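[Q] Does anyone have a clean structure-token version of this?
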Amino acid sequence: MITYGHFIGGKRVAGTSGRTTEVFQPMDGSVRGTVALASKAELAEAVANAKAAQPAWAATNPQRRARVLMKFLELAAKANDELADILAREHGKTVADAKGDIQRGIEVVEYCIGAPQMMKGEYTEGAGPGIDIYSMRQPLGVVAGITPFNFPAMIPLWKAGPAIAAGNAFILKPSERDPGVPLRLAELFLEAGLPPGIFNVVNGDKESVDAILDHPDIKAIGFVGSTPIAEYIYGRGCSNGKRVQCFGGAKNHMVIMPDADMDQAVDALIGAGYGSAGERCMAISVAVPVGQKTAEELVRRLIPRVESLKIGPSTDSSADFGPVVTKAALERIKGYVDLGVQEGAKLKVDGRGFRMQGYENGFYMGGCLFDEVTPDMRIYKEEIFGPVLSVVRARDYEEGLRLCNDHEYGNGVAIFTRDGDAARDFAAKVEVGMVGVNVPIPVPLAYYTFGGWKRSSFGDLNQHGPDAFRFYTKTKTVTSRWPSGIKDGASFVIPTMG
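[A] Here you go.
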């Protein structure tokens, strides 16, 4: 039985609040350990450590900060198998998928090694008579990240990498469902040379989240999770004068045009819809075939593929996906499938009865496929976050585009077609933040930014890429003139440089 505490001031510390919750191993349903839930006082202790350490770290030049990140990458590569095993056991995703989770986080840290370039300001000599103007980017101070269970390595690194590279101290409040990897990442950063107090991990629930939102010394907060919580964090954080970016729910569509390569489209839907048991904010959960013939062929091909999905324990290298994260999540997903049947959708493949031999207490859900789903159904409107794919038939391209644009979420979308005109028109007109053309999961590479539109995103700056450095820094502009014997006298008009 593992006991998880916090990582504060460069070391693991036990929780002192007296409150804990269980951490499960989804593949067999066993209790892996307990994790401490921080009090307001424990969060304040982490902030105090961070605030004390941050000025010296900010004064460390950017290339030296980048060298710490380079050393971290070396250590993380050596610990890759260990990290993936912890992640798979606590989350439920397969080890191979866990390694992908880690790699996507690593790529952002790699990008952050370019911090010296990203931190550069601007300079204009002779902007006016004897006047020079220059700008500089400076860290905010102490910043925080509140991250979800489904990517316990990737999203903490998306937040911590840019924040630390920019000279801030970082407080991470990860999901209490899978705390092992974030704590191990903190140790690796320390081993890489990051000063104690620059990366702190505080495990907890709403009490610690509210403490983050209300603490006056935390200047910025990044969040990824559900839309209702994103709205809550964004509203409360902004009202407390903090810079806040929040990323919420999704209902990602994939439009399949009549000219699409159907083999490619089916492969894409199977992988993007059912990978990681659908517990991805970029999972494709809605297939939109255009035209009756396209819909019939797509569903005909999908049925045997969904029926033959191989589900297994997280340690099974041949499994397509593993269990979902908790028993509560399993019951919620099954409840949505029940609801879809009640609403009149055609359940072509029913995975509710799946049982994993030898792992009967695990949180397993078989793949489900709905056909003839309509936009008024809750299974279409709401994020299910499980291995459930809904087919919504569109009469023509315009209706398919309208479905994507009318949905309240606008995280990711894809179109599969051989027609360049259709693809170009779709990319221009679709009201979604990340678009794939014959790419089912259009997650941008680390040097672009990641973020959705509409109720999938709150705030004006995205994650990673240049936006991350803009979010974790503030710009200061200096207008400078040195005495040169010129005596202008007092002026009572606004200064101009002409």
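[Q] Thanks! Anything notable?
[A] The CA atoms of residues 103 and 154 lie 7 Å apart.
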